[in-house]
Amino acid sequence: FFIDILDKEEALSTLSITVVGASGDLAKKKIFPALFALYYEDCLPKNFIVFGYARSKLTDEELRNIISTTLTCRIDKRENCKDKMEQFLKRCFYHSGEYNSEENFAELDSKLKKKEAGKLSNRLFYLSIPPNIFVDVVRCASMKASSAYGWTRVIVEKPFGRDSESSAELTRCLKKYLTEDQIFRIDHYLGKELVENLSVLRFSNLIFEPLWSRNYIRNVQFIFSEDFGTEGRGGYFDNYGIIRDIMQNHLLQILALFAMETPVSLDAEDVRNEKVKVLRSMKPLELEDVIIGQYKGHNKGGRAYPGYTDDSTVPKNSITPTFAAAALFINNARWDGVPFLMKAGKALHRKRAEIRVQFRHVPGNLYKRNFGTDLDKATNELVLRVQPDEAIYLKINNKVPGLGMRLDRSDLNLLYRARYPTEIPDAYERLLLDAIAGERRLFIRSDELDAAWSLFTPLLKELEAKKIAPELYPYGSRGPVGAHYLAAKYNVRWGDLGGEDD
Amino acid sequence: FFIDILDKEEALSTLSITVVGASGDLAKKKIFPALFALYYEDCLPKNFIVFGYARSKLTDEELRNIISTTLTCRIDKRENCKDKMEQFLKRCFYHSGEYNSEENFAELDSKLKKKEAGKLSNRLFYLSIPPNIFVDVVRCASMKASSAYGWTRVIVEKPFGRDSESSAELTRCLKKYLTEDQIFRIDHYLGKELVENLSVLRFSNLIFEPLWSRNYIRNVQFIFSEDFGTEGRGGYFDNYGIIRDIMQNHLLQILALFAMETPVSLDAEDVRNEKVKVLRSMKPLELEDVIIGQYKGHNKGGRAYPGYTDDSTVPKNSITPTFAAAALFINNARWDGVPFLMKAGKALHRKRAEIRVQFRHVPGNLYKRNFGTDLDKATNELVLRVQPDEAIYLKINNKVPGLGMRLDRSDLNLLYRARYPTEIPDAYERLLLDAIAGERRLFIRSDELDAAWSLFTPLLKELEAKKIAPELYPYGSRGPVGAHYLAAKYNVRWGDLGGEDD
Amino acid sequence: FFIDILDKEEALSTLSITVVGASGDLAKKKIFPALFALYYEDCLPKNFIVFGYARSKLTDEELRNIISTTLTCRIDKRENCKDKMEQFLKRCFYHSGEYNSEENFAELDSKLKKKEAGKLSNRLFYLSIPPNIFVDVVRCASMKASSAYGWTRVIVEKPFGRDSESSAELTRCLKKYLTEDQIFRIDHYLGKELVENLSVLRFSNLIFEPLWSRNYIRNVQFIFSEDFGTEGRGGYFDNYGIIRDIMQNHLLQILALFAMETPVSLDAEDVRNEKVKVLRSMKPLELEDVIIGQYKGHNKGGRAYPGYTDDSTVPKNSITPTFAAAALFINNARWDGVPFLMKAGKALHRKRAEIRVQFRHVPGNLYKRNFGTDLDKATNELVLRVQPDEAIYLKINNKVPGLGMRLDRSDLNLLYRARYPTEIPDAYERLLLDAIAGERRLFIRSDELDAAWSLFTPLLKELEAKKIAPELYPYGSRGPVGAHYLAAKYNVRWGDLGGEDD
Amino acid sequence: FFIDILDKEEALSTLSITVVGASGDLAKKKIFPALFALYYEDCLPKNFIVFGYARSKLTDEELRNIISTTLTCRIDKRENCKDKMEQFLKRCFYHSGEYNSEENFAELDSKLKKKEAGKLSNRLFYLSIPPNIFVDVVRCASMKASSAYGWTRVIVEKPFGRDSESSAELTRCLKKYLTEDQIFRIDHYLGKELVENLSVLRFSNLIFEPLWSRNYIRNVQFIFSEDFGTEGRGGYFDNYGIIRDIMQNHLLQILALFAMETPVSLDAEDVRNEKVKVLRSMKPLELEDVIIGQYKGHNKGGRAYPGYTDDSTVPKNSITPTFAAAALFINNARWDGVPFLMKAGKALHRKRAEIRVQFRHVPGNLYKRNFGTDLDKATNELVLRVQPDEAIYLKINNKVPGLGMRLDRSDLNLLYRARYPTEIPDAYERLLLDAIAGERRLFIRSDELDAAWSLFTPLLKELEAKKIAPELYPYGSRGPVGAHYLAAKYNVRWGDLGGEDD
């Protein structure tokens, strides 16, 4: 619908998107391609321009050359792709400047004004830069390159601090120059199709909501595993570790969406209110409910896989976790006593991102003797898989066709690729589009961020204060065995480690 | 497990199966092939013989020739099929006799005794004969050909009377010669995989039971349609009509299994107790909740399809319904107010047998505006399909992948053929095996039969007394429009008539 | 309604009630007074007579003198009481005979016939005699004194055997002379108002049924305590013990009514079917889930209370339990995992008979900190009290009025005496009336009895085989401490032992 | 707990309470007595003073004389009452001034400062004045008499505007001088014991929450009736009418507390967030769901009761409603389709303030035939009564003791007066104490007020624009018959108009 609104305004207004840190990896691989995809799909307003901003000295043409290598067209509709690309690149410009130079941003402002040609101007800054210069850029951009009449918005990427204090400090500094409304904290996981679909599933299907509570759900698992390590780029990571990198944001955000109460509407504030509520109902993480690990070198199939500390950008004695598992609890009426398990790791045997909902055993089950010994195998499970490919499946018990009464577990499944053959848009497309439209639902509000940090900060501090050493696990393995013990402590079995191809 | 028990006994005992009415169609097409399949699968005891009994004068060899034409091996394991067939046929014999001749049955008894060779003998009689001679055969078989030491059981096929009185009379007569334990009233629909699976689904999956009530289920539909008419064999049918032929037994039995309370165990008596309970909780059918139809001739694609009364075996002025739809209600705490709709018909546009469970609308649905105008399309639906091929699917609402928030309905599905590539056994195999094993769960007890008739008898009598004319519908159509009005009266839309391929 | 039916028949029919064992205590204290009360209330048919039968030689007049001393009128309507009593006594007669003499019963038959004066005669025999002569009396009465045209019914009192075998044998013997329809096994506890009301509460109030399951109920307690011992009449008791005397019948019957599924109707067979179902779903009792005790002598307030073995009718070394507590479990979907605790004992500190339903803790309770330390005190509890006076109360948490937020637990209560000032009829009245009307709901069917015994028999045999000694507890105390440990094992606290006057 | 905090601070700080409009009725009858009661109960800080402020010229002593007439001690603890009163009065002072004079407030400030004697000063202004001077007083007090170091808070009483616009304007003006945190909008109904208890009941008792939804609740009624009219003081009322006076604030606030979702904590912001959520989920009121009435003169028992327009302070042709009934709906998952009925009126036959929760019929009720014809009488009902005396009762169905099976409805009840014999504090005491402690839970936040007005404003405007005439009803009657039709339209029967003393 917002496209309609833009329609009316667009003759009279312009949109300028400034990618600060334009020469970085993320900008090249994700942001420019996403902008092009939106352009290709006609989702950008009629008058728009894209500015790259960075310290390198480049001409507009050089920028265009660089980004043109990463633009792609949807596999399923390639027509006019070449033309479209050229038109898009014509709207891309570059301005070189220091990140803390108000003067350089003032120059940018002049250029923007010229392009805007007196129309109502809306300006979006995408900060694809290291966190230590966030505030500088925000200060300069806000003071020297804000739109005089239209809106000015700033997208920032994680990390949003290292703990409660640094995050609060960052927020405080940002708010010196920006209102809450202008800050768009991006978590690209929230832009994934299945994450969006999570609320649709819960709230538009009668059959899920009655089951969505401690009465029926035994545990919920949030699993994120990568099948590669830091691979020579561990410098940034080593400063944060897997808990800050994946758990405290991506997985916790998804948990909040999963577990929140029904919002009063789908408006951003209403959804974010509910997310904050559920985060505030959670018990702060304790050391005994967390397992950390770090991968070590491993030879397999004649090939040597390096350990984390073999990465030259990582200190030799680093105890930064590359794997973590945690058990969390929500102290409210819906979830009291249900373990929410999280697991995130690098250099594991499989690439996987999914939510697994394990249901309780059937009380007084008539069919118990028909299942054999492993009753855990006989409970229902709902899996929402984001990676490797998006899918939903519901494990149910079935009679095996044939004479006699033998039961097994089958899947009621929905494979997105099969059902929806069109290409699924990248998360960055959705999020950029939302930021342009002022739709804040998928961005993280300051109080959400506070609540998230307050769950993890005591743990993170204790880990660091006590210099707790991670359990080593071989590159390409299933991770540290401690994760199993942690799960077992709460009567949980990790759903992604079953014998079958679960 | 019963196979184990048979193992121990089998050296010392024999089983003889007498197919009374051996020259009929059902015997040839279903019973002998099912017996062979059981033999092929090693499900019959070591010592067994099969006797055909009918009025025609045949030799053993002639019988073998006749039935050999209909025996088949499972598609998926054809090895030794030829050998097995020969061995099976060697155990088949024939005895010619009148159906009401005690003398002839005494002769059969002699032959059986000779084959049994002094072992403990168990005897199963399968009555594949018209209902008017049921009692004669039972009398003769019981008095002259019962097993002296082992058990004697009799399988009877519908029709079990035409109404409460005739059914009660038939039961009374059977019970003069047989105890309840000896009578196996077969409803071959209860032998279908998905019907067996219905209880498994409900009672071994946590996620279904909480939804299985008036709080969540809006209506349930039991649909049976054939895409052909009586095709020259309408003589028997005309005397009964579709209500007696399909609804009062097949569909009502499935309804009872669907709606019953959890039985205390899976034992036959416990399951049948619950079925009787639910039947007794039902409101007797009233004329205003029933629509009847009869197909008429129709030309389509250059081909002429005959009407029902064009069948030469059917009286020209017959008002026997070939189609019926009905709305039933169960006055108990679980189902109060939920319409259970049934629909059965011949010469319709599609072959279909299925249960459709339509769930309620989501209360206060957040996503209402995302569905467009047709909210009924947006409710969950669980479909258990028996024909054309066995499948389970659950319709859920999903976000259509892509930018924007558009919802549609997708299927979480389980297609048996894909998941279980082995051939699904015919219903008769299961039922014969159960009768041999003394497992009564899938057979209909006298009090069940009484309860079933008492629901339908007042209606049937009123239809006949008032000579109510059926609504005519063209051969190959979707049936009389009255069925829609009946459904609409209870805010129901038939699930099998959607625009999509539902 | 049955009174209406009796109205029509009564001019033409007679009812004769023969109290066999007329000189016994129960007969005098309960049966004759109950018959008089029914007469007083106009609940007996117009033509009725009462016969006493026993071995003592008495005249009609002597019987009348004896029973006249125990007849009373309702406190609240004493008018004409004297007249009514005289009229009632005129209809009472006596016949002296041996309990195993067919001849004596034939004499009774003659007398009955004479009084019946050719009318249709219905005959009810109330067997108020020791169990060892049950079968003799039934044989004689059935063979020589059955009604030729009307019905003949026999009421028997517990004990119905000592274990599964003896009970089955008794049933087998009774059934030689009587059909199931003729046997009325009385459990006078089932005639209590609150026991009758239990089903009314559950099934006619919307608010209870949703709470009536493992999801909300933490445990259920069935408590029966007497504040006196055997007091010189322990001879009969010593042979049975408290488990057989109270638990296996009274408490188990009430448990079955409490826990059963909704019956399809209130008809006797439907209710009893459900009771059998729930009994069959129970786990047989094991030794480790039972505590037994025996009271010992105790001096209190200057008075000496005798121990059980001080009773001269009890063997000195008796290990018969006078107290027992047990934990039972129902393995069905509704009750899986919920402890059902029973406790019965003599010579305890208080007379008490009640059902206590303890509900679960509120999940994620907002008010936890407002309750202080003892959370168990803060859960809801429903109490159905039969003795000392009938009452229902529901413990709920409330804000204590006043400034500040302090919670406490108050009762929503219904005291029968206050609400219904009329006198509550004795259980025997209801049961006799039901037996006369042929209403079997409150009588115990053979299969119920079998199911009940099969739960307790293994335990009883083990107790006796291992000669397990009961824990001694002082007369007038709260019973053995083992009962607390048993409860604590399942996280239960006995509701009748709270500090307050619960 | 705040008392503890105050303890520590109190030696160093003072509290001054200025009652603006001190000569008014409310001040005399409610505010000064409530302050005294708090003092008597030791709930006020050690150093406190009370100032009266009004236009009349009074000395301190004159004020003390006036208010001394209305102070009372708790009935149950009268000791030292006289002493306490004197000590309290010594702390009361008076300052005469215009409401819009900054100068006069500056004088007040000087006096306050003198009394505060250099301690940390907290100042509470209670605005007991007409709405048209709210803003003036707030401006003067805020600018000239705010505390320099401690807090300054202002309590305002309704009316908060006449509609969305005027309310928003008032809020805007207040916020020029005060932050949200400083504004305490009082609704004295929220200070009632039973209103406080409403949340306790719901959230600290397991048994209520499962029933608290559309699945079990048929309708909810909020009833407020007075047995007297305006009695010569209708001037103010006539400008507002009953909808603004009672419904839009008192009843709607209680509805919101009743229907809100579980808050994440009991903190003021969390509770008020939930109240706003539920208000925002409501359907704006439409004319067709509202009935208005006005009382007319009536002679009864020889006495003449005047009509509303007989009140000399009311315009003769006034069409201001003195009675209104309305049906409201909440479009969320919990309450979809459940009618929430409100009824408020003056000059009715009874004084009554209560919430009535009517539960649904039992589905498939076994006992239907035992209830007679009026099934509505047989549903459960929970009544929370505020006036005439505070009580909770739950109507349940019961077997009437006696032979036969007759059911009736009894009350499980809790009468506060009986259970808690101490006097219940007045609502003003609680609210004043909360305002002093900074506890905002029971005060209305700006967004709540907005949401409340947006529900009622369209209706109020339509009523006025169309000059809709109220239905006349006699003084002392049960109100206009239209209220019954309105209820009947949604299948509701008013619970307060049953035959029995409900």
For this structure, the quaternary state is homotetramer
The main sheet of chain A comes to: 9 strands, mixed
Fraction in helix of chain A:
25-40%
Low-confidence regions of chain A: none
Number of helices of chain A: 14
How would you sum up this structure in a few lines?
With 502 residues, chain A is α/β, with parallel strands linked by helices. Chain A has helices spanning 2-10, 25-40, 60-68, 81-90, 102-116, 134-145, 164-177, 193-204, 234-259, 268-280, 416-419, 427-437, 446-465, 482-489; strands spanning 13-20, 48-54, 92-96, 120-127, 152-157, 183-186, 217-225, 290-296, 298-300, 303-305, 323-328, 340-345, 352-359, 381-387, 391-399, 407-415, 443-444, 471-474. In chain A, β14 (381-387) and β15 form a beta hairpin.
Which features characterize this protein?
Dihydrodipicolinate Reductase, domain 2; alpha/beta; 36% helix; 502 residues; Rossmann fold; nine-stranded mixed β-sheet; 2 domains; seven-stranded mixed β-sheet; 18 strands
Helices and strands in order:
The structure is a homotetramer of 502-residue chains.
Chain A: H1 2-10, E1 13-20, H2 25-40, E2 48-54, H3 60-68, H4 81-90, E3 92-96, H5 102-116, E4 120-127, H6 134-145, E5 152-157, H7 164-177, E6 183-186, H8 193-204, E7 217-225, H9 234-259, H10 268-280, E8 290-296, E9 298-300, E10 303-305, E11 323-328, E12 340-345, E13 352-359, E14 381-387, E15 391-399, E16 407-415, H11 416-419, H12 427-437, E17 443-444, H13 446-465, E18 471-474, H14 482-489
Parallel strand pairs in A: 1-2, 1-4, 2-3, 4-5, 5-6, 7-12, 8-18
Antiparallel strand pairs in A: 6-17, 7-13, 8-11, 9-10, 11-12, 13-14, 14-15, 15-16
Helix pairs in contact in A: 2-12, 5-6, 6-7, 7-13, 9-10, 9-13, 10-13
